[in-house]
């Protein structure tokens, strides 16, 4: 069973969500705790799986992935594990979610351009054994996500 998180743990998570490159010294100072306490807590949060890792927030347009789409997938239910495994191997699939409703899976897909998106959806995703149908919803505009603790710039 997971150890419950206290207020300091949540403040650590909020701080690291805003800046995953923050030094332990800066983290400890901003939360008014010792560096040893900050190290121990972050280590515990990593070991327990609460912190799964640290990553860069990459702008898709500036990184050359100018086309985005949500792709819904219907599949043969018994093939879910095989389909999931195959989808996780495909370059350009950013997020995979098994959902309830009129379709089984929703994907966030990023591609260089429409031709790359077409190849990914028609050849790779639809070509996966167990996939029955797909529907592609092209993203026209994505507002920049607000960082945790910041107000929307609407």
Can you walk me through this structure?
The protein is of the alpha+beta class and about 150 residues long. It folds into 2 domains: about 5-45, Arc Repressor Mutant, subunit A (Orthogonal Bundle); about 65-140, Alpha-Beta Plaits (2-Layer Sandwich), CATH 3.30.70. The protein contains 5 helices and 4 strands. It has helices spanning about 5-20, 25-30, 35-45, 80-90, 115-125; strands spanning about 65-75, 95-100, 105-110, 130-140. It has a 4-stranded antiparallel sheet with strand order 2-3-1-4. Helix 2 packs across helix 3 (about 35-45). The protein is elongated and about 55 Å long. The termini are far apart. About 15% of the residues are buried.
Could you name the key traits of this structure?
154 residues, alpha+beta, Arc Repressor Mutant, subunit A, Alpha-Beta Plaits, 2 domains, four-stranded antiparallel β-sheet, 5 helices, 4 strands, 36% helix, 19% strand
Helices and strands: which structural class? alpha+beta
Count all strands and give the number: 4
Radius of gyration: 20 Å
- What portion of the residues fall into strands of 2 or more residues? 15-25%
How many discrete structural domains?
Answer: 2
Strand order of the largest sheet: 2-3-1-4
Number of helices: 5
* Overall pLDDT confidence: 92
> What characterizes the major β-sheet?
4 strands, antiparallel
Which residue ranges are poorly predicted, with pLDDT under 50 across at least 5 consecutive positions? Answer: none
- Second CATH tier, the architecture of the largest domain: 2-Layer Sandwich
SSE sequence, one letter per element: HHHEHEEHE
CATH topology of the largest domain: Alpha-Beta Plaits
Distance between the termini: 41 Å
Using the alpha-carbon principal axes, give the shape: elongated
The level of helicity is 25-40%
Can you tell me the CATH class of the largest domain? Answer: Alpha Beta
- Say which CATH homologous superfamily of the largest domain is assigned: Lrp/AsnC effector binding domain/regulation of amino acid metabolism (RAM) domain
